[in-house]
């Protein structure tokens, strides 16, 4: 849209993570995600790549766990690792695998 300003709700990712644990507010959170996801996909909102990966990782975790949407099981872990950056992701991956 020309001449419009898009803003992300900074509290939405935390609310989605709370919903993953509690299962509450699923409909409200799903509705709150509609505009920002479309804005990101249309590039009406542009985030730094790591922030974008983090945003999508939380959204997709919420979608898979709370909304029971089928997703590739590696999608969320890959997005979360990409959000961490190469060095931190490699370290996290090694810790997860129990490497010394």
TrEMBL record:
Protein name: Uncharacterized protein
Top-level taxonomic group: Bacteria
Organism: Candidatus Accumulibacter phosphatis
């Amino acid at each position: 849209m020309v001449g419009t300003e898009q803003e992300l709700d900074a509290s939405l990712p935390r609310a989605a993570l709370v919903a993953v644990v509690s299962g509450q507010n699923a409909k409200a959170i799903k509705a709150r995600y509609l505009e920002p996801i479309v804005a990101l996909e249309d590039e009406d909102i542009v985030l730094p790549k790591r922030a974008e990966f983090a945003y999508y990782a939380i959204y997709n975790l919420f979608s898979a766990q709370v909304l029971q949407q089928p997703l590739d099981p590696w999608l969320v872990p890959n997005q979360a690792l990409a959000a961490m950056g190469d060095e931190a992701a490699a370290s996290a991956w090694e810790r997860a695998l129990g490497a010394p």
